[in-house]
Amino acid sequence: DSIKTVLTSPENRILIKRMLIKCADISNPCRPIEQCIEWAGRISEEYFAQTDEEKRQGLPVVMPVFDRNTCSIPKSQISFIDYFITDMFDAWDAFADLPNLMQHLDNNFKYWKGLDERKLRSLRPPPE
């Protein structure tokens, strides 16, 4: 009933749609681990290429943390989850009840944290 009440207002429906689009846009940490790793690698490579190009052209570097020679992908993912994802998806989960997404988020955070604790900077641990 409370969701129906929220949905009766056109302003609320617009806000919910905007929130859904934003969550979908940044939802990678809420995907199954293999998809999360794949897309973290793709976005990191995109940011590395941007940083490389900015340096090549002598432009200000917009995201200095994404220098391919010094970047820790696990640290970047942990920061992204801490600063942007957790609160947003906690709120979305309270509204829409998304246990699977929240479980993936927890699993992925633990994965990145584990790599970081081992001082690894890559997407995956080295083969044993």
TrEMBL record:
Keywords: Hydrolase, Metal-binding
GO molecular function: 3',5'-cyclic-nucleotide phosphodiesterase activity; metal ion binding
Domain PDEase: 1-119
InterPro entries with a match to the protein in the record: PDEase_catalytic_dom, PDEase_catalytic_dom_sf
UniProt record, GO biological process: signal transduction
Signal peptide: none
Pfam families linked to this entry: PDEase_I
Origin organism lineage: Eukaryota, Metazoa, Chordata, Craniata, Vertebrata
Gene3D superfamilies: 3'5'-cyclic nucleotide phosphodiesterase, catalytic domain
Protein name per UniProt: PDE8A phosphodiesterase
Domain of life: Eukaryota
Tagged with keyword Methyltransferase: no
Entry keyword rRNA-binding: no
